[in-house]
Every structure is written in structure tokens, then in C-alpha cells.
Amino acid sequence: MTLTEKILARAAGKARVEPGDNVWVKADVLMTHDVCGPGTIGVLMLKRQYGSNYAGVCHTALPQKGHTRPGEILFGTDSHTCMAGAFNQFATGIGNTDAGFVMGTGKLLLKVPETMHFRLEGELQPGVMAKDIILHCIGEIGFDGATYRALQFDGPSVAKLNIDDRMTIANMAIEAGGKNGIFEFDAQTQAFVDYRCKLNGTRTAYEPIERERKEKFVYELAVDISKLEPTVACHPDPGRRKLAKELGNIKLDRAYIGSCTGGKTSDFLEFARVLRGKRVVIDTFGVPATPEIVQDLQTARWGDQTVWEILVEAGVQMTENAGCAACLGGPVDTFGRINTPLKCISATNRNFPGRMGHKESQVFLASPATVAASALTGKITDPREYLPN
After folding, report:
1. Confidence (pTM)
2. What DSSP assignment string belongs to 120-142?
3. Are residues 354 and 313 in the same domain?
């Protein structure tokens, strides 16, 4: 069985499952948020519908708060719940009604998905990031090429990807239509999960899922990541893959870094690496995913400045209000929202028409490094032109 099949089999109390099987699985964690929470809670007509501690973007906050454990089942009322697959768990988005059922019963009926296999080999070159890996993979299969399938990422290169990198890749499984994305368990996973669980006083016991020798995949792709270059997903969907160096003729009005995919501490560090000592020429917005990341950026020093100060000095409009912000559009006064037909390059995860606001705007998805380089020139730019020596 594949990693996904093994987790679902265990959660269903079965020795094995096959793709296409319908099984009742026991949920370990249910996540909901400000948008879907009232609807989910309303199913059970619970009285309390608020929390006392704001944590930021749910998908980034969950691991920070010690709620992602290997081998577990995580359901969430958001399509990017699959981000937690970085921690060797089955994580997928569900609707409010299903979430209400899980809240009331602790289980859910699922069809076991087929698994697509992405074997990562080689080593990332300077200027190329995890975002480029997943944009390349989606470009290979199309934005609907993994519909109701699991995307399994493994291979020798995974050990060279940090946890943030894996989160970026797993997060965008849904942008190819995937049911979930999942990584193998290793020492990095263990170190992160153990630290976060102890820090937050959450459950520390878990049982990872290991690969079997015999796995049956519906699709296999070996990706030599050492050959990848800065990549962009062009309007109007994440499957429209092109290389950044081929798109220098596209002038931009705005640059944006943030969201669960591109608003992590490591994302802002790479963003700052390109911008340091320079000045953006277009409106550029920065939205950290969680309050902890805001704190990281305001305390971590690079020379005699904090990372936050470097970004502000470069002309980036930063906000301390961590959250999703313009990634999903929102009201017209949302920070960074596109309210007119602009062209924006963004480190977020989705670029369907109207996603970040105005339905006639155009969003180009790229890595934080590519977004930074493009903010410096006002056109889509390969970040390797701006890497420090």
C-alpha cells in the first residue's frame, strides 16, 4: 500500500484498503476557521462560536501549535488543509456539513484515492525554491491532473528540503485537484513535531507511517530538481507553467507575499535576501501568516537591521495583522486586495479569476524570490539576476 492507503487502512481498522474502497475512518483532528467555523458549529447548534487566542492562518498555525502529528487523520474546512501532509499525515479539506458530522461522531466516510508518485532527485540551485518544485509538478499534469488523487512526494532530495519547503509543496496538491499530498516521515519531521508538541503541551505520542516495498501508483514522475529554474504559473490557473526568464515582457502593477504557502518565516527571509539594500518600484505588500512569524521578522537581525526593517526600508508595505488577507480576496478594504484590473505577482497558491479581488485582474504565482525580483523591476523577473554574491 502507499502512504495514504496505509494511513486510511489503520484509521478504518482494516488490514489493507484499495483505491476506490469506501471506508469509515476515525478522525484525529478537526480544524475549522473564521469563515467556515460558524457554519460547521451551527450544524450542532453549539453555543460557543469563538476562540480566545488568535493564531493566524490556520494551516500555518496548526503545526506551530503542535496539532500536526505523523500517521494521523486531519480534516479541515478549507481546501488547503492538505498542507499538513508535510508531516506524514492524511490531511484534506471537507465541507461544513461533513465537518459537523465529524464533530458529532468522530468519523467520516471516505473513498480511498489512487496515488500519484513524485520522486524528487538532485539538489535545488540558488534562486530556486520549493514553490518552483510544485509549480513544475502541477505544470506537468495540469490544474486538474490529480483530481481526487493522493500526491506522494519522496526520494533522496526530500531530506534536503526543510519543513517549510515540504509544507509549500503539500499545500498546493489541491491546485492540481488532489485529495491530499503526503511526505515520508524522517528525522526533520520528528524534530519539528516533538518540539512543537512539547512547547504547546499537546499530545506527544504518534505512530508514523513508513513506505512499503511494493506500492502501486497510478502515475509516476521523477523530478531532477537540480535542473529546475524559477517558475511562474500564469493567469488564469496554477497549471499555466512558464519560466520566469521567458516572461520579462509582462509588466506588473503589484507584488504580494503572504498566505499559508508564502507567508512563512523562511519565505520572508528569501524575500529579504533579494530586496536587501534595494527599493521596489511597484506596490508591494507583505502579510506574515501568523503572529509568531511577525515576531520572528521583528526580532531576527541581519547586520544592524531586523528583517522587518529591511523589508520596510525596501518599500514593502508590511502589516502586523497576520492572516490570509488578499490571498482569498475578501472585502474591498482587505490589506493588499486587488480592487481594479491589475497584474500582480504573488507568492500565494491560487490564481483563478477573481481569487485576489477584481475578477478581471491577473495573478501570476511564483516563489518569494521571484516575487521579490519582480517587485524590483516592475516586470516578471528571474531572481537569479539579483542574488547576492
Report:
1. 0.96
2. EES-PPTT--HHHHHHHHHHHH-
3. yes
